[in-house]
Amino acid sequence: MTRRLGLLVTDASPLITLAAADALECLTLPGLRVLIPDMVYFEVTQDLARTGAEDIVQWARRHPGQVEVILTSVFAEFQVVRAADERTRSKGRGEQSALEVLNAEIDRDPDLEAVLLYEDNDVRTRRFVRGLPERVTALSTGDLLHELEAAGLIQSSDRILDSAAKKERNVSQQRQPWSDEAARGLLRRHLDRDGN
Q: How far apart are CA 36 and CA 150, in angstroms?
């Protein structure tokens, strides 16, 4: 029997965009577990004065059991390296930690279904998205919002993207479909099955 891993946030951008639009609840609307690798969580919360950082912390606290920050060796290694040189950058490590979480879950259950949430062009263009197992799909923030709108769970994906744009988030690429039909279809089937 296939079990659903949930929604795995592969980089900081979806969290920042949705926090800027005061729309983090969109991630919990499908009823999936939301998994955030610790490296990604660190990237968005290391400076609580940055746009949405405090909102992300509070949102995660409001949803224990549904929103989980997952420990990774990528973040543990980053902490060691950064302790030796605080100028160490986190670039690319969020995606690496997401891949670590995904691989660990696949090892535990080769038949899992998962939706990877991304927004970063780097994630979209690298083999990260192209080399996914058959039951693992990648979905952009915009496509998530469009599917939630189609299911009647939010009023307007454009309104959310407009709100994020007002806080200087570049959302132009999120307005057009980026994910393939299989990715959108997996979320759509889940929403239909759960009666959302």
A: 25
Question: Which amino acid belongs to residue 96?
Answer: Q
DSSP 126: S
The single-letter DSSP state of residue 52 is T
Q: Are 67 and 34 in contact (CB under 8 A)?
A: yes
DSSP E strand stretches across the chain: 4-9, 34-37, 67-70, 113-118, 136-140
What single DSSP character describes residue 10? -
What confidence tens digit (pLDDT) does each residue in 14-54 have? 999 999 999 999 999 998 899 999 999 999 999 988 888 99
Total tally of structural domains belonging to the chain: 1
DSSP annotation of 64: B
Say what angle helices 141-150 and 181-193 make with each other, to 10 degrees. 40
What is the residue range of 86's domain?
4-193
| Residue 109 DSSP code | -
In sign, the C-alpha dihedral spanning 53, 39, 120, 62 is: negative
